[in-house]
Design a protein that fits this description.
The protein has a single domain, classed as Butyryl-CoA Dehydrogenase, subunit A, domain 3 (Up-down Bundle). 64% of the residues lie in helices and 9% in strands. The chain has 4 helices and 5 strands; from the N terminus they run αββββααβα. It has a 5-stranded antiparallel beta sheet with strand order 4-3-2-1-5.
Length: 167
């Protein structure tokens, strides 16, 4: 049981680390001359512009920012509740509250990555008429980490739902 508990803790911490990296790092959309994330766009590795009200997709990126931050916070809260429930729950009870919060984290990261995917596709179609340095690119590793974090949070949410406290 101790090995299973250690595995679950490491899996949860890995999920949280993936969420932190995906939220903070500047590699959601990359090209040869630029890289962009949900916070800023950098051209030629020196000219970085913060995404603000003047950016044409600001409202959409705010939704992505908010859901990624909420996902990270919920993942951390789920871990704290798991640790509290580990010592407070009676033997044989399930970690339902931890599971619910972790699955909400999973939903938030899925929403963020889905919105970003949809808006990036729309931007690519719109920019085919007008040249933009950020129109030619590909999804970066932080975007991929967001989808991996989605899978990890989903799996850990299901594990918590199944897990019972035993001796």
């Amino acid at each position: 049981m101790l090995v299973l508990l250690a595995f679950i803790i490491v899996f949860h911490i890995t999920s949280a680390a993936l969420l932190f990296i995906a939220t903070i790092d500047n590699a959601w959309w990359v090209g040869e001359e630029f890289f962009a994330d949900i916070w800023r766009v950098c051209v030629n590795n020196t000219n970085c512009t913060e995404i603000n009200d003047s950016y044409h997709e600001y409202a959409t990126l705010q939704a992505v920012q908010a859901t990624m931050i909420l996902s990270t916070i919920l993942c951390c809260i789920a871990f704290l509740i798991f640790v509290l429930q580990l010592f407070r729950l009676k033997q044989g009870e399930r970690f339902v509250l931890t599971s619910i919060i972790q699955l909400m984290s999973c939903l938030c990261v899925m929403i963020a990555a889905s919105i970003y995917t949809d808006r990036r596709k729309d931007l690519h179609e719109q920019n085919s008429e007008f040249y933009s340095p950020t129109s030619e690119g590909r999804y970066g590793y932080a975007f991929i980490l967001a989808w991996v974090a989605f899978a990890f949070t989903f799996i850990s949410g299901i594990m918590y739902l199944i897990l019972r406290k035993r001796k």
